[in-house]
């Protein structure tokens, strides 16, 4: 199945048929090839395949929640462009001083400056697995990032598009609460905090985002389509020969997570689970039946063509 990587096709997953249709179905990226979960393996996959990932989605689609789940379960670095920029400014690096001067003037940072902010970190990661958040946001930035990564012989390997219907997002943003210091997101409909109004890990109070209202959401949605649709079309085109574009559909992060998790496990077998994740999943005393089922599933995978699960405990 070498054709999977020859043209970097767009791949679409959908858990169930749904009556909700989003505007993104009308853009060129929606012309995804039919694909099934068990065809994700290819002859080019091996334990050395590095995950270098971008995730796109409308405001409120669940990018932050799903990225956090990946980082919690797997040995993957999450890189925030905003955090990197603030670090450069705080450390008074050359690009940090340049960026601070531009920001002080109230101007947007040019694409080449943003690339320097991101590239300085990516170049130090060698063969680490990573997810980049907040960059690129435009087609021009996407092309700059691609050219830089290819020059470093470290091209993107996965681009994920979260396709959640507009009306679904609009109906749930009023239920969203966030822990601003960590970025953890809760939803009172399907992802409630343990104690209403307070963060699960720190106990600190949760707040609402000021832009979580229909009017501002509509403006942000238009901005998303204007800037991101050309980017997705670029990653879906034959010009993109290396990164695989996958579109995942669902109404909640809980629906999309199993799809995303399966893509990472099957396409990037070298991405290891964190020890804490394995221990929690395998040896939870609160659900012995689930624990036994999980052990059997691992053994079945080891007996077929999957990697040896014991190596994740080293």
From TrEMBL:
Enzyme class label: transferase
Gene3D superfamilies referenced in this protein's UniProt entry, alphabetically? P-loop containing nucleotide triphosphate hydrolases (3.40.50.300)
The keyword Mitochondrion is assigned to this record = yes
PROSITE patterns, A to Z: ADENYLATE_KINASE
Recorded catalytic reaction(s): these are: a ribonucleoside 5'-triphosphate + AMP = a ribonucleoside 5'-diphosphate + ADP
Q: In which broad location class does this protein mainly occur, judging by the first location in its UniProt entry?
A: mitochondrion
| EC number from the UniProt entry | 2.7.4.10
Q: Where is this region: NMPbind?
A: 80-109
Q: What does this protein do?
A: Involved in maintaining the homeostasis of cellular nucleotides by catalyzing the interconversion of nucleoside phosphates. Has GTP:AMP phosphotransferase and ITP:AMP phosphotransferase activities.
* Similarity section: Belongs to the adenylate kinase family. AK3 subfamily.
On subunit structure and binding partners, the annotation says: Monomer.
Domain note: Consists of three domains, a large central CORE domain and two small peripheral domains, NMPbind and LID, which undergo movements during catalysis. The LID domain closes over the site of phosphoryl transfer upon GTP binding. Assembling and dissambling the active center during each catalytic cycle provides an effective means to prevent GTP hydrolysis.
- Spell out the protein name for this chain: GTP:AMP phosphotransferase, mitochondrial
